[in-house]
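haha ok so turns out i had the wrong file open the whole time. this is the CORRECT one, sorry everyone. sequence first:
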Amino acid sequence: MRKISSSSKSFRLSTIASLSLLACSSWAQGNATLTPVIVTANPLGTSELIAPVDQLNNEELLQRGQSTLGETLNGLPGVSSSYFGPNASRPVIRGLDSDRITILNNGGASLDLSSLSPDHAVALDPLLIERIEVLRGPGVLQYGGSAVGGVVNVIDGRIPRAPLFGAEGGVSGRLDAGFATGNKEQGGAVVLETGTKRYTLHVDAMSRKTEDVSVPVALDCTKNGVTRTDRRICNSASETYGGAVGGTMHFDRGYLGASLSTYDKNYGAVAEDEVTIRMRSNRYALEGELRELGPFFQSVKAQYSLTDYAHTEFEGSAAGTRFKTRGQDLRLEARHARIGQLDGVVGLQFDSSDFSANGDEAYAPNSRTRSSAAFVHEELGTGWGKLSAGARLESVRVESLGIAGNTAFTPGARSFNPASYALGALWNVAPEWQLTSNVSLNERAPRHYELYANGEHVATNAEEIGNANLDKERSANVD
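then structure:
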């Protein structure tokens, strides 16, 4: 798709307020340098990271002012986007995209169909994101062997992992509002948090509305049989709403939290003048951690999520093809006690997802995917720096269920056992100077549409033909 430049001025206003029932502490005068906190790049919590990591906090996200995850990250070192108009864009890391990039939500699975087609939007909006991390190296194997290019972790704070207030309680909030001239965007978000030392409640909501994007050239637009010419990208408007409720109970040696979130988006698919996509995603998450468990384990953490996602592609006012996916993700992670200079995490992960497509433009059959994995991530301190190693073993089963009455798709099933390994090193070559290196060997099981697709993909003007005999995809990577 050709990307047409547009001239736009955007304005953002962010207000942060906090009210605490405790007396305010006085702060000493002077300058302080704070090290960015990386939540998932290194589960061991050390500040010296072997793998390259990029991070955007809420203030930087507001300054970028983009409406999609891909365009928000576009321009970071090694990161571009799969831009398919202003409403659909996934991150591309070192030239790798789609299922070779894993998108996480608070370290857990983020399920949608954005990897199936470039016109499918990611079910996340930057307005409600606190921080984004782009991760690479041995540590990403704990999130999936298919993350050859890296991992994008979106953090929204809907399940607070530590108390935000003292014993007497308090309230804090954030209000963001903005508009842009190029597409007449109007958007805003509000985040409220309250609680005490023992519990925290979180509520957030957002909305964003845009019109067709202004451009410096005249373009044709045909709707309802009438063609007009205008200096706008036809069918590029959008309307988005989202929100969540979450809460956490805090204990002396851990926490337990849950959240419920919803995301609705109605947007134009710019490849066709009259095609719009209406999507909805509901996500339920549960998370907990126990610490100081004894001589063998420092902590044990569990994360579970259930996602219901669906979108319908409309041609004018007529509903066309409907895509649905429902998936669950369970992660169990244990940090073992230190053995000399060796520190590490071992874990298990279980995923299941069901996919269906119904309509004239369904080019992939209904399918079921089940996977389980065991992973390990270890770091060893040395006199000259440290070593890092990771490994992941998976079992994946992909099953085609066909589509009733459609002879283009036949039932079938394949099983795979991918294995991925990574090794990294950090050298302290001089004061304030470090040298790092990473090497990995990855295997990825093919997705259901890579195996069983058979039909026309109108959005990309391509004929999608899967190969049920595909083997595992293998890659070698060096940093």
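Helices lie at 58-64, 69-73, 448-452.
again sry for the mixup
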